């Protein structure tokens, strides 16, 4: 989770700092999987590829 860009600093071969942008978009905590409606998911199962 982070707000704003996420930067990390690494050292290159000459021991000079190298800043890299890892993520430019904010990331927020997702809803817990406990809140996921599994009954709704089951309604839309894909048909079997082999027709079984």
Structural description of this entry:
The chain has 52 residues and is of the alpha+beta class. The chain is 12% helix and 25% strand. It has a two-stranded antiparallel sheet with strand order 1-2. β1 and β2 form a beta hairpin. The radius of gyration is 22 Å and the shape is elongated. The model has no long low-confidence stretch (mean pLDDT 75).
- Helical amount among residues, as a percent range? 10-25%
Q: What is the tally of beta strands?
A: 2
How many whole angstroms does the radius of gyration measure? 22 Å
Strand line-up in the sheet with most strands: 1-2
Uncertain regions spanning at least 5 consecutive residues: none
Q: Helix count, per DSSP?
A: 1
Question: What does this entry show, briefly?
Answer:
The chain has 52 residues and is an alpha+beta fold.
Task: Sum up the structure in keywords.
two-stranded antiparallel sheet, 12% helix
Any chance you could write out the topology, listing elements then pairs?
Layout: E1 6-11, E2 17-23, H1 38-43
Antiparallel strand pairs: 1-2
